[in-house]
């Protein structure tokens, strides 16, 4: 029907779609589209995280193959041979845990070809005690006791390492029961750090987060760190 030359719709169903209706429809479509894209991104991130954890686990198992944490090792002797620097470190670190002292790398030297020629691992109490306290009335505890216990490892022509110097005597009391808490052992591997971060993002509380790591490790005594260390790492990760 026409009135004064202007077309008038004869029925509501014949009414043209308004601009606002078309806009709303487009908005809903975009929202659905964005929602779908966001889901894809989230799924991709979760898959990447799973792959990352799997890679870390594989690396962890490879490292553990070098030396079982529960293996009882013999005391070091001159002439002992190892396939790599990592094997020497793993061996002496395990021996130190077994005996009850901490270790640290003291010196190392590279050859003309740039490869490691020799290195020394010693007791953490090596060296002279020096207090850095500015207040003479409140001196800080002196940690270094001049302990001479150490091993020197030299690289052989075939790339293996042999112990050339071994000093076993310590000038302090050894504490096998407390060895896992020494700073040299109080470290988290990449796998544990990543698990803590992912659990925190999932809203898991620090206490439950730590307990999940304990259960996976097989008990508190299997971990060289405590709940406070886990909490500190999570807090640090949140600030990044």
Automatic annotation (TrEMBL):
It comes from the Eukaryota. Residues 30-46 have a biased composition (Basic and acidic residues). Residues 91-175 form the FAR1 domain. Residues 1-46 are annotated as: Disordered. InterPro entries: FAR1_DNA_bnd_dom. Residues 15-28 have a biased composition (Polar residues). Pfam families: FAR1. This is FAR1 domain-containing protein.
